[in-house]
Amino acid sequence: MASNQFQLLLFSFRFHGMARDAIYTSDIHSNGFSFDDKVASVFADMIGRSVPGYGQTLQMVELLAHQYAQEDSNLYDLGCSLGAATMALSRGAAGKTCSVIGVDNSPAMVERCQQTLKDEPVVIRCQDILDTEIENASVVVLNFVLQFVDKSARLNLLSKICHGLKPGGVLILSEKIAFDDADENRQQIGLHEAFKRAQGYSDMEISRKRTALENVLVPETLATHHARLKQAGFSTSNTWFQCFNFSSLIAIK
Ligand SMILES: Nc1ncnc2c1ncn2[C@@H]1O[C@H](C[S@+](CC[C@H]([NH3+])C(=O)[O-])CC(=O)[O-])[C@@H](O)[C@H]1O
Ligand SMILES: O=C(O)C(=O)Cc1ccccc1
C-alpha cells in the first residue's frame, strides 16, 4: 500500500469515529484481554500506538503481495481485525484475478471490518482461523495473530497454511518476540515500553495492559519461529523486519 493510501485508511478510521485508546486508564479491564467491542472500537489507535513499525509492516504487506500474488489464487489475511492488512493485500494484488479473504473470530472486529471495507473487493468472514480451510493460496498473512493462538495449536496451523499454498506461495508472519538472553529480553521490553510512553500511554496504562496480556499474548523467539516454519513444511524463512521486540518474517513454500 502506498503510504498515502495507508494514511487514507488511518484517516478513514479516524473519520468514522476512531476513538483514542484509553481502556487501561481505568482498572475495570484489568481481568484479562479480549477482542471485545470496547477494544474493537479503539483498535486502530491502539495498535498504531502500541506496535513499533506497524504502519511500515502494512506497506510491506502490500509490496510483498504485489511481488508474490499469483493469478487465479486466494490471498488470506488470518486474524484481520479491522482489515488493515486485508486492504494492503487487496491493493498489492490489484490488476490480478485474486480473491482476498479476511478472517477473524471476534464479532466486534468483523462487524467493523465489513463496514469499513464494504466497497473493497474482499470477503470478510467471522471464523476461528483454526477452522479456516486454506486452498489455492499464493499469499497468507498472520499479522500479530499467531501470538494469540495456543502454543500447542501453532504447528498444526502453520502446516495447514503450508499445505494450502501453491508452489512459490508465501506466508507473511509478524509477531511480538521473546529473546533467549534474559538481559536482551529485558532491554527490548524496556525499549518497547519507552515507545509506548512516547506514544502517550502512561506507566499505569502500560503496566495494566502488561498484566492483562499475560498468558494471552505468548511471544516466542525468532529461532523458535524459524524452526517451526521449517517443521511445517516451508522451504525457507527469513526475517525482513525487526524493531525492538516486534518482528516480521517471510516463509516460502
Ligand atoms: N483463533 C483465532 N481465529 C480468528 N481470529 C483470531 C484468533 N485468535 C486471535 N484472532 C484475532 O487476531 C487479531 C489480533 S490483532 C491483528 C491485527 C491485524 N492483523 C492487523 O494487521 O491490523 C493483533 C493484536 O491485537 O496485537 C484479533 O482481531 C483477534 O480477534
Ligand atoms: O501493547 C502491547 O503491549 C502489545 O504487545 C501490542 C498489542 C497491540 C494490540 C493489542 C494487543 C497487544
Total DSSP E strands: 7
Q: Specify the helix fraction band.
A: 40-55%
Radius of gyration: 17 Å
**Average pLDDT number:** 93
- Please state the overall shape, judged from the principal axes of the Cα atoms: globular
> Order of strands side by side in the largest beta sheet?
3-2-1-4-5-7-6
Largest sheet: 7 strands, mixed
What would CATH call the architecture?
Answer: 3-Layer(aba) Sandwich
Unreliable spans are none
Structural class: alpha/beta
SSE string: HHHEHEHEEHEHHHEE
Protein name: Carboxy-S-adenosyl-L-methionine synthase
EC number: 2.1.3.-
Catalytic activity: prephenate + S-adenosyl-L-methionine = carboxy-S-adenosyl-L-methionine + 3-phenylpyruvate + H2O
Subunit structure: Homodimer.
Describe the structure.
By secondary structure, the chain is α/β, with parallel strands linked by helices. The protein has one domain: Rossmann fold (3-Layer(aba) Sandwich), CATH 3.40.50.150. It has a 7-stranded mixed beta sheet, sandwiched between helices. The mean pLDDT is 93. The structure holds the ligand Nc1ncnc2c1ncn2[C@@H]1O[C@H](C[S@+](CC[C@H]([NH3+])C(=O)[O-])CC(=O)[O-])[C@@H](O)[C@H]1O and 3-phenylpyruvic acid (PPY). Keywords: Methyltransferase, S-adenosyl-L-methionine, Transferase.
